[in-house]
Amino acid sequence: MTVRELVDKGVIVRVLNMGTVENTPMGRMILTVMFAMAEYDRDMIVERLASARAVAKQTKPDYHEGRKRLAIDEDEFLEMVNAVEANTMSKREAARRLGIGDATFRRRMEEYNAA
Predict the structure, then answer these.
(1) Which residues have CB under 8 Å from 96's CB, separation 6+?
(2) 34: helix, coil or strand?
(3) Percent of the chain residues past pLDDT 90, beyond the cut
(4) What is the C-alpha to C-alpha distance for residues 101 and 98, in angstroms, rounded to an integer?
(5) Which of 105, 101, 57 has its CA nearest to residue 83?
């Protein structure tokens, strides 16, 4: 539920250092200005992040968005893949033993089988 919906239902909103914002013409104007400022601030954040990413891509050849790839012991991983393919272990159990998530194990297994 948004602030506007709450005000429409008769809820009195108290803004620090401003007092109450009620369902009056002045209250609606204050809310509209506050919402516009919040939207502007969010748009500025998105713009700054996009700009920083573009600079990073140009200046850092090894730039990569997102988390770093988890390091997994290759021998242990192959052992788990063989166990899963032999139906002696579930993918979930293999992932748990490797200390990674189920989806990560499935993705790595697909990458391994595709290579």
Answers:
(1) none
(2) helix
(3) 55
(4) 9
(5) 105
Q: Name residue 79's beta-bridge partners.
A: none
Token pair, residue 25, equals 């013409």
Q: Which residue has the tokens 């620090």?
A: 16
Give the sign of the dihedral formed by CA 32, CA 33, CA 34, CA 40.
Answer: positive
| DSSP letters spanning 37-58 | HHHHHHHHHHHHHHHHHHHHHH
Asked whether 105 and 112 are in contact (CB, 8 A), the reply is no
Domain ranges of the chain: 3-59, 74-114
| Closest C-alpha to 38, from 22, 7, 15, 11 | 15
Q: Global pTM?
A: 0.54
Cβ count near 28 (within 10 Å): 15
Predicted pLDDT at 25: 83
pLDDT by residue (tens digit) across 5-51? 887 888 887 877 777 777 778 878 888 898 899 999 999 999 999 99
Query: Which residue type occupies 84?
Result: V
The Cα 64–Cα 56 span in angstroms is 9
